[in-house]
Amino acid sequence: MKKTLDLIQKLINIFLSAAIFAMTLIIFLQVISRYIFNSPLVWSEELSRYLFVWISFLAIADAVRTKSHIALSILTDRMSEDRKQIISRLNYSLTCIIGIIMTYGGIVLMNLGVHQSSATLGVPMFLVYLVIPVSGVLISIFSIEKIFTKEGMVDND
Questions:
Q1: Are 126 and 113 in contact (CB under 8 A)?
Q2: Is 2:16 a contact under the CB 8 Å cutoff?
Q3: What's this model's pTM, rounded to 2 decimal places?
Q4: Dihedral (C-alpha) 41, 47, 48, 54: value to the nearest 10 degrees?
Q5: Apex CA 40: angle with CA 26 and CA 14, to 5°?
Q6: Sign of CA dihedral 130, 133, 139, 142
Q7: What are phi and psi of 153, to 5 degrees?
Q8: Are 154 and 145 in contact (CB under 8 A)?
Q9: With 80 as the cut, is the pLDDT of residue 72 above it?
Q10: Could you give the CA distance from residue 133 to residue 65 in angstroms, rounded to a whole number?
Q11: How much is the pLDDT for 110?
């Protein structure tokens, strides 16, 4: 199971790197096009916005797996190891519930977007909304992994 989740995380990181590079390149080309050639690229803003949405949602899932979210540890620093583990499991349980809610809400939103397309690119909106349930599932899976492994427990740093 760990190897599968490691592979999923690696694929997420590859996608995130490519999407950030693409978004940066698109915005750079937009600036060049607008200010040097006086002819803006009409599709660039929409595509970079959609890439940013995908980057944001998938980065949330990645941060759950790598425990990269900001955490206030002022209370847990003073707790025993047993209580830290309880708090950590509770935290990941709530995160899992949020992931499930995101999955459900994302599926509802995708169903609304089936008959819509974006204004400039003509992309079906359900493809843009697809990232919400995908990241919700990933957040839930990564949270469950943290709940049932020692690796997911609060660090003593």
A1: yes
A2: no
A3: 0.89
A4: 180
A5: 10
A6: negative
A7: -75, 160
A8: no
A9: no
A10: 17
A11: 95
SS3 59: helix
Q: Count Cβ neighbours within 10 Å for each residue of 26-59 and write b for 16 or more, e otherwise.
A: bbeebeeeeeeeeeebebbebbbebbeebbebbb
CA atoms of 144 and 157, how far apart (whole Å): 23
Q: What is the pLDDT of residues 7-61, one digit of tens each?
A: 999 999 999 999 999 999 999 999 999 999 999 899 999 999 999 999 999 999 9
For the chain, the average pLDDT equals: 92
Whole-number Å distance between alpha carbons of 118 and 152 = 40
User: What type of residue sits at position 151?
Assistant: E
Q: What is the CA radius of gyration of the chain?
A: 19
Strands (E), the chain: none
